Amino acid sequence: MKQATCPPDDQEFSEPWHAQLFAITIALHEKGIMSWPEWSAMLAAELADWKSDSDGDNEDEYYGRWQTALEKLLCNRDLVGETELQATLVERKAGTTAIQDE
To answer: Contact at 8 Å (CB) between 74 and 85?
Structure first.
C-alpha cells in the first residue's frame, strides 16, 4: 500500500476549496477552538483511515479527509449540528454559500 503524503510545502493549492479548508483550520486555531496537537491527532486519525481505504495518492481525497476531520471537530464541539452541517455542504456543492470558488 502506498504511503499517504502531504502536498509539498512549496506547492500552491490546486483547488480553491483546498485553500479554503486550510484557511478555516487556521482561523479555528487562532480563535482558540482547537489546539495544534488536537488538530494533528484528529487529522492523523482521518489520514490513517484513508491509508487503509485507498492508495493515498489523490489530493482531493487528502483534502476530503481534512474536511471530514474539521466536520468532526465542529460537531464534537457542538459548534454546528449534523443537520446544519449537511445543509451547508449541500449548499456549498451547489455553489450557493457565501464563499464562492474564484
So the answer is: yes
